[in-house]
What we know:
Blueprint: H1 13-53, H2 61-77, H3 82-109
Helix pairs in contact: 1-3, 2-3
The structure holds ligand ISJ.
Amino acid sequence: MxxxxxxxxxxxxxxxxxxxxxxxxxxxxxxxxxxxxxxRFKCTQQVGRLKAExxxxxxxxxxxxRQIARLxxxxxxxxxxxAFAEKFLTFxxxxxxxxxxxxxxDTAGGRS
Length: 112
Ligand SMILES: C=C(O[C@@H]1C=C(C(=O)O)C=C[C@H]1O)C(=O)O
């Protein structure tokens, strides 16, 4: 019987070494992405509190449009699919707006 998945024991050790080296880099990049996202959410939480205190709306579509245009241009320069970059940013912003709505609700609930 043939199989398309060669067992690791059949694979050239040099290939396995290269795979491990690349996966180590992927793991480092994933860790950096998580840390950068955590920092971004720390900032957006502060923005959410500021907006709630001053009764500003949770979402700012004008700002979002400028960020999307900027990120698409950066993605093109970096040879990353701009549609993917936009989808990724839109996904993050949707979560931020959810947080801001929740902060606004909590803040309004505490107002006399
Ligand atoms: C963080 C903000 O709030 C929202 C979230 C944004 C984001 O995550 O970048 C951008 C615009 C707003 O819809 C902001 O107004 O700057």
